[in-house]
Amino acid sequence: MKKSRFFLWSGFGLLAVVLLGAFVFVYLNNTTPSKIVLADEAKEHSVMLHNAMGDHACDCFQPWIMNVTLSAITSNSVNVSWHSGTWQSGVDGPATYQVTWGTTTAKPNTFPTTLPTVAYVDHTVTLTGLTANTKYYIGVKGCCLSNCNRGGGPTYCKTFQQAGGVKEWTFTTIGGTGHTIKGIIGTTANGKKLAKVATPISGVLVTLSGGATQSMTTAADGVYQFTGLGVGNYTVTPTKAGITFVPASRTYTGFSADTSAQNFAQSTGVAADNQVAENAAISAVEVAKVTATDVTITWKTGIPATSMVEYGLTTDYGLKSGVNGEIVYNHDIQLFELRKGATYHARAVSYAEGNSDAPSYSPDFTFKVPSTEDRIADKRLITNEPNPASRWTMFTYFLYQPAKYVTIDVLTLSGKLVATLESPSSSLGAGWNKVRWDNMSDRFGKPLDNGLYIYRMKFHTLSNMEQQIQCSSLRIEK
Predict the structure, then answer these.
(1) Prediction pTM value
(2) Bridge partners of 215?
């Protein structure tokens, strides 16, 4: 063999030995998985973690619509306000926008019709030209202004709300003019409701004050009626010598329909428990619990009634909770998606059984929402699906405040740690988050055996709060 060819083959052999040795050294000393894939389907993008070191590349963060409020509701207009952020915790996300609205869930109207070219963090839009006493549906779209490489480029829009994925809000415009307040004045029989069993009282002077001033005297039927009223606060007071009426007067705010019934009963012969004939008088109002995202309000009524709360940043309120139609004495309503650090005005509202025209209102009260949250997560809001899992499973959890990091430890029933997942930055924001576990392998990349496992979640917030939650079981069946 020629000497040059001998040296050539010797060089190739030496190179092969060196490469083989390097491969064996890396393989024997590598104690981290070669690849962990965490896909966050809820956020419309995915993250690839290499060797669990957190080196990743994300596509465009979509605008995150937060703290949607409806205020200044009139007979023909409403203000819609919200804040734009991103799924990256603690980061404002200036965005352009469009608001959809209409009298059906299809929301056929769009404002503005042309997508704005300037991005904002805090938004307020006034919708006008509405119809009085009409229910409307509202949707808010946050739109990427530029440089979005997913979903269609700079005009990509996505509707999303911080807590629970709310994408639609409703409100009802208040009435215009031409409303009526009427009622009957009489003596109840055996404590029955005045509108059903009553002896009318004539010659009663009934005075209307507040948004308008009118007066009249009842005839033999005991009926009074004031017409042509606009929206406002009104007080109705009956007087007649020698008669005490219960209640002594009634105050009414706004109109949920064209007519309001305001009835009065003579106190003579009426049992004390039934002196408020048709009105579910509200008492013992308490703000039971306030957090940075929600509040619970409780109260009592003298007779069984429904439950609702009107609330807002001013005494105009503008927002309403859902109506609990259960007829009860003890009431509680929870309000969600509150603005951190804001002071709210509120009042409790109840309707007596069978009476949808004469609501009872509590006096106005206020509560302040904390600027920071003292909770991180709740075991009741942590799940994984599918379970049993064959090829992948999705961990879902709700954060009351943004987190610095979240880890998911998977353990055997004996407590041996077999795998640890670290949530990507896109799954650390306040609200609902999802992390998908695709390979279901142990810390060394070996697929886990079929069987029952448990998992625990560890949370660490931006303010260095920590929490650990032991979760339910996870069954693997491949």
Answers:
(1) 0.34
(2) 207
